[in-house]
Amino acid sequence: MKILLVNASDTLGGAARASYRLHKSLLKKNVDVEMLVQLKLSDDFTVRDYSESFFQKKISKIRSLIDGLPVRMYKGRTKTLFSPSWFGFSNVVKKINAAKPDIVHLHWINAGMIKIEDLRRIKAPIVWTLHDNWAFTGGCHIMWECDKYKTNCGSCPLLGSHVENDLSRRVFNRKKKTFEKIPNLTIIGLSRWLENCAKESSLLKKHQVVNLANPIDTNVFKPLAKKTARELWNLPLDKKLVLFGAMSATSDINKGYKELVEALLLLNDNDVEFVIFGSSEPKDKPPFSMKTHYLGQLTDDVSLVSLYSAVDVMVVPSLQETLPQSATESMACGTPVVSFAHTGLLDIIEHKKTGYLAKTLDTRDLASGIEWVLETSDYEKLSLAGREKIVNEFESSFIANKYLQLYESILSKSKTLQ
């Protein structure tokens, strides 16, 4: 069985990290697996990019800008990412078919990586892991409160459009025509919430939809002595530390930085300090007196493990999440997580057992959750339960076996239909 994983990058972004971890997990199972990307940042020989010529390498760097040109016509658009995926001239499908895989496993394929219509040219059965909402919408990656994906997009609020036959409707119809011509397509929702969204969508509900999580290597992500970890980061030994972090942590509205600041303003404990990764110190500092440590971008697992181990609580206040790896990573390291009780976070956190689930977008309850974790007399029990949850349900070998079972069932069904 030969598997080809396809993602825009191998290490840049959450979807890249998740797909690359699956790639490594399958390799450990001695699976014949390769990863194909648009932007290769690692030196892993089992990962290759599809841009070979000088021209292809140059054009790949501006594909995302070119693909986004139709969106720029909507002056009232929001900052939420919207991908038309119209720009062709990519040889990615040619490379996919030339590899002759038994299964093509798509992940995040935007940033101008592939034209929607080109998906039907893939010859092998397709498995597609959803890392956001894009596959079943008219182009938005985060649908927020809009449920037009259940019927037919148009008059898109994210584009600021009041026209039914707008860009979102046209992208939606292109997907509909394309998906109808892909006979063997299996959709993976990383969380039960995303699985249900896909099943409710008019674009994907006729295809097989299953729930499978991202894998995490719990032999790498494991607790480190807190004193040692704090000394490594030069963090105070006598303070309670609250951690928050993500790519573009303070600028991406979906990550909930604004809501977290509101919650931290409600904390009265002078012994608490705030730690942020994924962002440098901003010009406009948050309106609280709490001492804040800005650690910038972190990309390697060793740094993340030591940081998770150094703090007392991780806060993931995202407004929407598929299955945030920051939560599973933190809990694997024995650090409880506080978040809002919605979307993919419900699959990870068990209220007051492995962390705290605050009422959705209730910043006062978010503050209560942070205080509860910092003050609970059962902190050690909470930490152990969190790690046990990740080891039992998200451990890389366990998850890899589930993916192998899915691949085998698809191939068996495919042979039966031939």
TrEMBL record:
Limits of the Glycosyl transferase family domain: 234-381
Record-annotated Glycosyltransferase subfamily 4-like N-terminal domain positions: 13-135
Gene3D superfamilies: Glycogen Phosphorylase B
Pfam families noted in UniProt: Glyco_transf_4, Glycos_transf_1
InterPro entries per record: Glyco_trans_1, Glyco_trans_4-like_N
Protein name: Glycosyltransferase family 4 protein
UniProt organism field: Flavobacterium artemisiae
